[in-house]
Records
---
Amino acid sequence: MSERVETNELEDLLVSYAAGSLPLPAHVLIAAHLEMNPERQRFVGAIETLSGDALLDQTPVDLFDGDARLRMIVGKPPLPPTPPHDDPVFPRALHAFAGFSSNEIPWRTKLPGLKEYSFGEIDGCETALLWARAGRAMPDHTHEGREFTLVLSGSFSDNRGRFERGDISIANETLDHRPVAGEDGPCLCLSVIEGKLRLTGSLFRKLGDIIGT
């Protein structure tokens, strides 16, 4: 598995995940990543333990109308049972978020050799599943905000290196890149974008990448 992302960027994401401060799509992306990377689960568990210890050191604060809050919690209906999970591509967190399995994705063709299923904008993030045929290049682009990409199957490469199943690519306005799906097969990714993409590169290469040559 590739380790091309900056360690501090990924650790910041994991800390934000443990604190519950990520937008929903980014939270789902990290939860799916953790399912595929058990060693990172231990890192997040350690963060949560430290956070719990810090809370124990805080002075207790009385709840306003605590009895009413307790009645509200107890009176809530139980959560539905977790459905069985046997999807070889979608981690459980992504399966629950999407509401369908990896063989049921309602794709729409975006460009030749490139398909997309968009979840739309959620918590200020454009969220989508992307599928690219082997060798398919995305147009050169940079970002107005952060872009998180989790590889679900296959691989892609850019000027930083190769990303494989379970890897996260973290991009921001300092990166100008041209991701290319691996030649060994199609690449399927979950993409969460906090800002917009801006195409870069020459007009000739833009046209070639758009039509998929």
---
Amino acid sequence: MADETETPEAVEETAAPEAAAPAEPVERLHPKVARKQSRSKWTGDKAGSERDAEARQADRVALRKQNALARTRRRQQEKAKAVPSGNEGTPKPEHGEGRKLVRTGTVVSARPDKTITVRIDVARRHRKYKKIVRSSSKIHVHDETNDANEGDVVKVIESRPLSATKRWNLVEIVERAR
């Protein structure tokens, strides 16, 4: 048994000849050159063997089909998440359909026949600075009966183009001017 086990001195003696051999100087390449060499070794094949063009094309087609299926699945999941509950049966409105905008504003001018000019004031909070920013816009509104006068507060709704500048109809007069 004593012969089978090696003593620490024997282990050092066997390791010493390997360490004593002169080490070859290691050539250090520039990182870009080393990366280029490592990339040139890889051919893109999993097996590393030479394949003909048909086999590579078949692999590309299979990968594209797999990616297309994954995209389709993902889009269906996103569509299912986007639909709010309770609206599954209602179809999505086509372009030009759906809710029309309703705005409230003050009549600035009622001089033209069947047309009024309405100023719509908007106050909203600035996204970045959080300050209240006030802005206004003027629109031309169709008033069939010439009911509205200057200073009235009116409710208007979006409509088809009625003239070069009119895209709104008068719904009701909310408050008369004093």
---
Amino acid sequence: MVPELWQVSRVAPNSPGEQSGATIVSEDTWTAMDHYVIEKLVPSDAALEAALRDSAKAGLPAINVSPPQGKLLHILARTQAARRILEVGTLGGYSTIWLARGLEKGGRVTTLELDADHAKVAKKNIERAGVGKVVDIRLGRAIETLPKLLKEKAGPFDLIFLDADKPSNPEYFEWSLKLSRKGTIIVIDNVVRNGVVLDEKTTNEEAKGIRRMNDLLSREKRVVATTIQTVGMKGYDGFTIALVVK
């Protein structure tokens, strides 16, 4: 139950021309706002734009993070002074480039991808962006690669980004903890899914995976976490950010 204090659904007028009442904003406005943010705060970048174009040309699904979200990952990497970053779900390498550009000198991004065609596109995009030497693309099922990383002592990672198949999120999160240290930040994308996650009787496997992950998070004493809802060119969704504290 949401405390009554926070149950705010009305917006008072800010000027004589505005009407009091619930604010209704369209997806067109969300998208326009994203473009405004990009224009002001996310400068045009040839390598990133080429990565999106080539990914689309190769038929990859348009499920990469938005430019503002990519820059958030970059900022988090820099805030962490990250030397080791783990990404689960490479796709065309767009978010990988953002992460790699946030690395400390001598750092490395390890990114896991299931699809060989996706990995091929990503490799080209990553190399063109000039970060090929600091990115290690691991091909195969992440749930099989993650134990190998632990055995190799590839961690602990400073920043972990989970953006792969959502039904496996609980398992990815548990492995992330094993590959973390105190202070590691774990970011999990696409955790709202248009609000479908609210339905405890949902048959949507992705939403069910996220609900299971949230159940894990609610019990896990080694992290503090929150979820931020987002709107924009990618629609209505959100991400969870967890800080490892033990």
